[in-house]
Amino acid sequence: MSTRLWKARDVKKCIITPSELDNKYSRGVLGVITGSAKYPGAAVLTVASASATGLGMVRFHSNSGLAHLVLHSNPEIVVQPGPVTAWLAGSGIGAKRYGDFTTWLRHRWFTLISKQSVPTILDAGALHLAGRFNQPTLITPHAGELARLLTERGITVTSEAIEGNPKKWAVIASEKLNVVVLLKGAHTVVTDGDSIIELPVSTPWLATAGSGDVLAGIVGALIATNYIEILNDSKRLSEVAASAAFIHNSAALLASRDTPISATQIIEYIPDVIRKLI
């Protein structure tokens, strides 16, 4: 299986810059189902990082009365349902928040994911929905989450085993679940089961609360703006996911300069990274 190291020139190809003919709808609209009463900050971080990455609109679908919190931090966010070009679900939501799969799909927001057949990102509490949708789907687990997901699907593995051989287990997950896998960690890899993309080694300062939520927002924005390319090219989803991970780490490096950082600080440097890339 071919393996490719993702570089800045590869990322640039996945950044869609608007033209004078674009509007807020044509630039990409991301539907977001994130955050919970237990982890409300995830909602703020995902929409803020998506907005900083660049797209036409973020539609936030509140499940725990989080709209006020999100709007206080990001007043440009739309909290009304409508058409989207990509979905992001699960960040900051516990795996058992909505019980079994049927309960998830009955929920008024989650029914939209199956009805609006656009590229979909499943993170954290939505990972167990992997393989349930027909549209192009990306999952973004860390080693522990992937170990739990695979064990639930009949493949027993530990997080330590996954950390020891992330490429092997990312491929197994992709083939088992029929999804693109972005396996987060010091050695982040992305695979569609046919080829593997490796990212540069991540800065250890990314190991901080909320960092994964920021990555989810970046991924969501890039997928929402690349939705036409993704629907027309099966390889594009992997490339966009890898580009998001590259931007995430690059923003962390700028924010850190070898000192501690917070997830919020990473968001502040996303535009600077994109400016340098394009």
Low-confidence stretches: 97-106
Biggest pleated sheet: 9 strands, mixed
So what's the CATH class? Alpha Beta
CATH superfamily (homologous) name: Ribokinase
Number of domain units: 1
Average pLDDT taken over every residue: 93
Along the chain, the helix and strand elements come as EHEHEHEHHEEHHHEEEHHHHH
Rg calculated over all Cα atoms: 17 Å
Strand order of the largest sheet: 1-9-8-7-6-5-4-2-3
Report how far the terminal alpha carbons are from each other: 30 Å
Helix content: 40-55%
Shape designation: globular
CATH topology, anyone?
UDP-N-acetylmuramoyl-L-alanine:D-glutamate ligase
Count of helical regions:
13
CATH architecture: 3-Layer(aba) Sandwich
Proportion of strand residues = 5-15%
What does this structure look like?
The chain has 278 residues and is an alpha/beta fold. It has a single domain (2-273), classed as UDP-N-acetylmuramoyl-L-alanine:D-glutamate ligase (3-Layer(aba) Sandwich), CATH 3.40.1190. It has 13 helices and nine strands. Strands 1-9-8-7-6-5-4-2-3 form a nine-stranded mixed beta sheet, with helices on both faces. Helix 2 links the parallel strand 2 and strand 3 (57-60). The chain is globular, with a radius of gyration of 17 Å. The relative contact order is 0.17. The model is unreliable at 97-106 (pLDDT under 50).
